[in-house]
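Bench notes, afternoon.
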Amino acid sequence: MKVGISLYPTYGGSGAMATELGIKLSDRGHEVHFVSYAQPFRLPSFKERIFFHEVEMAEYPLLEHPPYSLALAVALHRVTVDHKLDLIHVHYAIPHATSAWIANQMLAEDRIKVITTLHGTDITLVGLHPAYQPITQFSIQKSDGITTVSEFLREETVRDFDVDRARIEKIPNFVDPDVYHPDKQPCHRSALAPGGEKILMHVSNFRTVKRVMDTVDILARVRRRLPTRLVLVGDGPERVRAEERAAELGVADDVVFLGKHASVDELLPCADVFLLPSESESFGLAALEALASGAPVVATRIGGLPEVIDHGVSGFLLPVGDVEGMSDAVLSLLLDDERHRQMSEKARQLSVERYSADRIVPLYEQYYERVLATPSERRAAG
């Protein structure tokens, strides 16, 4: 099968998952064509059966804001024709689903199937803005297939975009247990905590919705009881505020800002506890990768996170903004080695059982086949 994948290539859950899916599909013998404005950050420099097509943007004085969505449509059309794609799979509705629809109109009688995977803020935030809601709804409804990464997001899509629930397939995010595991080498713990301190970790794009300041507040509370360091992986608009907050609380020397890292699999096994105090998470890919790496997760009870984290078993779920409760949850693990060991083992076990790539990727292949099948073939199969 030849699959075109359109995605955001930058640091974030939707781009990471779309890239990992493409890599896994290529491993299973499919030909994958990534189409975006830059090479996906998790894409290796070369991999058999994977091709990257950069969207060309034309500069012109009248185009104060170059129309990326139109350039993407042209690129999708060109790649479809030149490489005889079987389907286009777009990740994140805005603008990819719209661009794919335009590309299909350009193909006329040679139109191919388009599948849209909804990841989160494309539905819960950006897509709901009055400037985008009508085109988001139109593009989703015009897709031949629709998937969401969580049950929470499926219900949000039904409610806010007038989509028949039966049209939406829930296929969760996945993790490769051979990449994310507790014994990953090389181990960077001695560099991150040279004094043998406990390690709290957070990975995100540092947007306001991630509440990075809460992680600093949690560290300040935990440090009163035992030596602890906070490792922050990623970058974004809230980084400066987080640095200022750390200085204000007197914990700047115990906060490590690593910036963006593509190989978070080498860092997560160093975490004693992973923090995700977000006010919105449609799934929580970072939490899943932490669990698979053996790190219990202390997070908020919102969105799709209860589908990923078993409260009291693989982590703890608290209300948004409950810094005190999250700090107590962290201490209950760091001060009890046996409890931490048990929860770490459960985190690994449950994440692999439910969300292993070997289990989830075939669900996409099966869905592709269903969408590509003719109506008579679907009736026969059903």
